[in-house]
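Our platform keeps sequence and structure together, in a single record for each protein. This encoding replaces a full spatial description with a residue-level series of whole-number codes. We quote a single record here, exactly as it is kept in our systems:
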Amino acid sequence: MNNKLVILFAAIVLLAFGCNHNNNQQTNISISPEAGSAYKAGDVVNVKVGLPADTKVDSIVYLIDSTRFASKKDSTALSLKTDSMPLGIKLITARVYQDGTKQEVSTNIVLLAAKAPEKYTFKVIKVFPHDTSSYTEGLLYQDGFLYEGGGGQSRQPASRDADTTLGQSSVRKVDLETGKVLKKALVDPKVFGEGISIVGDKLIELTWKEKIGYIYDKNTFKLLSTFTNNIGVEGWGMTFDGNKLYMDDSTNRIWFIDKNSWHAIGYIDVYDDKGPIDSLNELEYIDGKIYANVYTKDYIMVIDPKTGAVLQKIDMSSLYPEASRIPPAEVLNGIAYDAKGKRIFVTGKKWQHLYQVEFVKE
């Protein structure tokens, strides 16, 4: 073997040894709590870095979801307060600095709501007619009228992924008292319309899987423009609080969206005291809280928009029981709020009626 090969072989062995040494050194550092540990909002989490005996460190910097929140000169336990944190999975990372080197070790926790949702039911105040041709995806009330976004046909699991024409989705302006459609814009039959919101003089409509959004003139229903919606998994429900839009995407996540640029500016993950609430659907913003249908479920969740905690769960199962629904009626979906009159309206996909309701604590 010539000298060059000997030198090359030695370098490879040294490199391999160095890599193994670094890997062993890395595995000698641990962190608690165990990954996946669940806590309730308000709990104090004791974060502890485990080091080999007699190991001295220069400092340990702690991060949660990549944001620094503390540092220490030793490895004694650190108390992490959770009372003001949004809920969901939180990545906890410790950066250990020692003799000019840095090593990282991470774990994660799941932060749940502090307590179970309060249980509510409802009473019906008034019943209005509803167009049974509307597969209700978005519903809102403004200036004396209902605005409704409807998908073209059922998206129940059997047909959700079928390779067929989706039918004719639409957006509508509706007379509340009669249910009569006063104005209507049809969407491309190959596009499935979803949630809607009104921002100023513009009506915005999401689409299900197409990653397209439509912007209409609210008064004429003329299509003004489209935009690309790359936020989230899919486009489902939407609402507006006067400053920013909220959008869900088939998961337990609600996105915050800039009303002008359509860029995501934040999000919350929705949890109760047991776990995530998936399949969030139609949304409505009422007096500082988000009201959400859950797809295929006969209840409404009331959500804290700061933390994602479910504050109340409203049982709507007796409003129009599934067993007594007259075809083509399907699932509960659609919440609208008359802010001036303090009236709440609910309906479902292809239901015969729209109901003014009052929510009552059990």
Summary: The chain has a mean pLDDT of 90. Helices lie at 3-27, 157-160. The first strand starts at residue 30 and ends at 32. The first helix runs from residue 3 to 27.
